[in-house]
Every structure is written in C-alpha cells, then in structure tokens.
Write a structure and sequence with these properties.
Blueprint (H helix, E strand, L loop, with lengths): L4 E4 L5 H11 L7 H10 L5 E5 L2 E11 L20 E9 L7 H15 L4 E6 L4 H6 L3 E2 L4 H7 L7 E6 L4
Parallel strand pairs: 4-5
Antiparallel strand pairs: 1-2, 2-3, 3-4, 5-7, 6-7
The protein binds coenzyme A.
Length: 168
C-alpha cells in the first residue's frame, strides 16, 4: 500500500466523505449538502486522505469568528468578511489508516491560516480527543454560558479549543 496522502476535495468525493462521517460520527450526523457547502466556500481548507485511490479520511476547515461555533448540520451561508480564526470543523480517518496523518492535515491548515494572515486555529474537540489536540498546541477555552449552549449539539465531552499560531 502506498503511504496515504492528503489532497484537495472534489465534488465527486462527497459520497465517500458522507460515508466516513456516518461511520465515525454516528451520533453527530450531518447532511451531505452541509459538507458540500464547506467544500464550496473554502476549497483550500477541505481535503481528503487517499490510500491507493481510496478515500480513507477527510478534514474540513474554513475561516470563522473566534468564540462562535457553527451548530452541527447547519449551513454557514457565507464566510465572515472579518474572519479571525480558521475553524477546523472535523478531521476523521478510518481506524486502519490512523497514525501520523492528522498531524499532516493540521500542518497544512496552519500554513493556510498563516498565508491568509489568520493568527488562530479553532475547533470543538469531541469524544476524548482533547489530549490529541493538546499535542498539537490547542488549549481548551473556559466556556461561558453562551459558548456552552452552542457546544450542546456536539455532545457532552465537547470542548472549544484554540491554538495561537503566534505562540508556536
Ligand atoms: C482524530 C484522528 C483523525 C487522529 O488521527 P491520527 O492519525 O491518529 O492522529 P496523529 O497520529 O496524526 O496525531 C495524533 C497525535 O496525538 C497523539 N494521539 C493520538 N490519539 C491520541 C489520544 N487518544 N490521546 C492523546 N494523544 C493521542 C498521537 O500519538 C500523535 O502525537 P505524536 O505525533 O506526537 O505522536 C483520528 O483519531 C480519528 O479519525 N478519530 C475519530 C474522529 C474524531 O474524533 N475526530 C476529531 C473530531 S474533533
């Protein structure tokens, strides 16, 4: 097997992305059109992981506003003109292909943010992935009541996390 690698998404990748999302996030379902909108609004932030021409993972990210969390399965409508963070919506890789690949995606997103003059990466960590994101330099933000309400759709363990690129 050739080493898996990330490439930009194509519209034709949508069924594979949706299938992986349904398998890895059964409790956090999102409609294919919601993924497609992100791919259309921010093609540079959306990538798939391929291994022998098969799609085995995806990463979706787009410019956004700090301390604002797009609710799951909702359309963004448009990107903010005054974006101050690059928001990593999701990274998901099939179990057999994990190990070192998320790091490559995050590095690509970091480069994208720097090129766009954006100084912060943001994400919502779900399940028990907080230590994994801490490995990449993300820090949990203490959520106020408003942020907690927005986190609700992401499940109980959801944590809003930021990574300051200037500090890296
Ligand atoms: C999140 C995910 C994409 C990570 O993929 P991966 O290829 O295993 O990640 P990587 O190996 O590139 O990087 C993870 C880093 O954190 C470490 N790590 C991996 N799992 C970890 C865990 N559960 N706790 C702490 N550290 C962890 C790795 O050792 C690595 O650090 P290192 O490079 O210093 O050794 C994969 O686990 C996945 O698809 N999970 C299910 C979906 C998910 O939870 N997505 C995140 C939504 S917020």
């Amino acid at each position: 097997m050739t080493k898996p690698h990330w490439r930009p998404t194509r519209t034709s990748d949508l069924p594979a992305i949706s299938a992986i999302a349904a398998r890895i996030h059964p409790g956090l379902a999102e409609r294919p059109d919601v993924f497609a909108e992100k791919m259309r609004l921010c093609p540079e932030g959306c990538r798939v992981l391929t291994a022998d021409d098969e799609i085995v993972g995806y990463g979706l990210a787009h410019p956004w506003r700090l301390n604002r969390i797009p609710p799951l399965d909702h359309f963004l409508e448009r990107l903010p003109g005054d974006a101050d963070c690059l928001y990593v919506h999701d990274v998901a890789v099939l179990p057999d292909f994990r190990g070192g690949v998320a790091r490559d995606y995050v590095t690509a997103i970091e480069e994208l943010a720097r090129a766009a003059g954006i100084a912060t990466l943001a994400l919502v960590s779900v399940y028990a992935t907080r230590p994994l994101w801490e490995r990449f330099g993300f820090r949990p933000v203490t959520a106020d009541a408003e942020l907690r309400a927005k986190l609700a759709s992401y499940g109980e363990a959801a944590t809003y996390m930021l990574r300051d690129l200037a500090a890296a």
